[in-house]
Write a structure and sequence with these properties.
CATH architecture: Sandwich
Distance between the termini: 75 Å
CATH class: Mainly Beta
Helix content: 10-25%
Order of helices and strands: HEEEEEEEEEEHEEEEEEEEEEEEEEEEH
Strand order of the largest sheet: 1-22-19-24-17-14-13
Length: 307
C-alpha cells in the first residue's frame, strides 16, 4: 500500500471514530418553581455545568390529581436560553413583553431570554381541572457574550412540526429538536451549534449518531437501560452519560435481551469557553453584570407580567 493510501485510510478511520464514555452522573431529586419535583443531573455541588449547557431538569413523570399540578410562577431570566420539551401534559406560559402561549404533549419552546424577561410557566387551566400525566424537560443553554443582551425571542414548535425519522428496520426512531439525525434537520434555529435529539430504541436497536469532534456531548436516559460508547458502558433511567471528546460519533445500543424500549436524549454543543458568572435566574460573564441584572430586575426594567 502506498503512503498516500495508508494516510487516507488512517484519516478515514479517525474521522469515523466512535466516542468513549468519560463518566456517568446520577440525577438528584429537588423541588423547583412552585414546588414540583424534578430530577436533575446538573448543576449540583460536584458538577456545575457542561459548556455550553447550564442545567437539565426532568419534570416528572408524575400523575397528578385535579388541582394538584404545579408550575413556575413569575420569575426573571437574563443571559441564556431555556428549552422546554413536553412529553405529556399541558403548560401555559406568558411573559413581561406580552407574549403568551401553550405547550402540549410533544411541543417545544426555545426561549432566548437575552437582555431579560419575566416569565411564568404554569399548568393550563384545563390540566388543572382534569389532572393527568406530566412529563417534560427543561434545558438551559448558555448564550455567548456577544448575545447576552439581545432582544428576547421565542421559537414555539408544535409536536407535529418536529422532524421525525425511523430506521429502515423499524428499530430506532428519533425526534429532531435541534441539529440533524437520520436524514432529518431541525426547524429550530440556534445561536450556536446545538444537537438535541430524542431517541427511542427497541431491543436490538443501535444508534450511531454523528457528533462533530469539537462538540461536548452527553446522553440522558429517560426510560430503560442501554449500552453507551464504543466500550458499551451501561447507563440507566435518570443517568447522564458523558461522552469523551475523542471521536465524532456517539453509539447507543439497546441489547437484544432488553425487556423494554430505551428512550434517551442526545444533547451536544460547541463549548463557548467563556467565563461564567451565575446566580439563580441570571447567567452572565462577570459578577458586575450579575449585580446589574438584579438591579435592572428590582427597578422593573425587565417589565412585569400583566394579569
Amino acid at each position: 500500500m502506498s503512503m498516500v493510501k495508508e494516510a487516507l485510510r488512517t484519516e478515514e478511520t479517525q474521522t469515523n471514530k466512535g466516542r468513549t464514555v468519560a463518566g456517568i452522573v446520577n440525577s438528584i431529586e429537588t423541588l423547583e418553581g412552585g414546588g414540583f419535583l424534578v430530577r436533575r443531573p446538573f448543576p449540583k455541588a460536584a458538577f456545575s455545568d457542561f459548556d455550553p449547557f447550564l442545567l437539565l431538569d426532568e419534570m416528572g413523570p408524575m400523575d397528578v390529581a385535579p388541582g394538584e399540578a404545579k408550575g413556575a410562577p413569575d420569575h426573571p431570566h437574563r443571559g441564556f436560553e431555556t428549552v422546554t420539551y413536553m412529553l405529556w401534559g399541558d403548560m401555559e406560559h406568558k411573559d413581561s413583553s406580552g407574549h403568551a402561549g401553550k405547550l402540549r404533549s410533544g411541543d417545544v419552546q426555545w426561549m432566548t431570554a437575552g437582555a431579560g424577561v419575566v416569565h411564568a410557566e404554569m399548568p393550563s387551566g384545563e390540566f388543572m381541572r382534569t389532572g393527568g400525566r406530566m412529563h417534560g424537560f427543561q434545558l438551559w443553554v448558555n448564550l455567548p457574550q456577544r448575545d447576552k443582551m439581545i432582544k428576547p425571542r421565542y421559537q414555539e414548535i408544535p409536536g407535529s412540526r418536529i422532524p421525525k425519522a425511523t430506521s429502515p428496520d423499524g428499530m430506532v426512531s428519533v425526534s429532531v429538536i435541534a441539529g440533524e439525525a437520520m436524514g432529518e434537520k431541525a426547524v429550530i434555529e440556534t445561536r450556536t451549534p446545538i444537537i438535541y435529539l430524542h431517541y427511542r430504541i427497541k431491543p436490538g436497536g443501535v444508534v450511531n449518531q454523528k457528533v462533530p469532534h469539537d462538540y461536548n456531548a452527553f446522553a440522558y436516559v429517560i426510560d430503560g437501560a442501554g449500552l453507551f460508547g464504543v466500550e458499551d458502558e451501561r447507563g440507566a433511567d435518570g443517568q447522564m452519560i458523558i461522552f469523551a471528546p475523542d471521536g465524532d460519533e456517539v453509539r447507543i445500543e439497546n441489547p437484544p435481551d432488553a425487556s423494554a424500549t430505551l428512550e434517551a436524549l442526545v444533547i451536544a454543543g460547541v463549548p463557548l469557553n467563556e467565563p461564567i458568572a451565575r446566580y439563580g435566574p441570571f447567567v452572565m460573564n462577570t459578577e458586575v453584570e450579575i449585580h446589574q441584572a438584579f438591579e435592572d430586575y428590582r427597578r422593573g426594567r425587565m417589565g412585569a407580567i400583566n394579569s
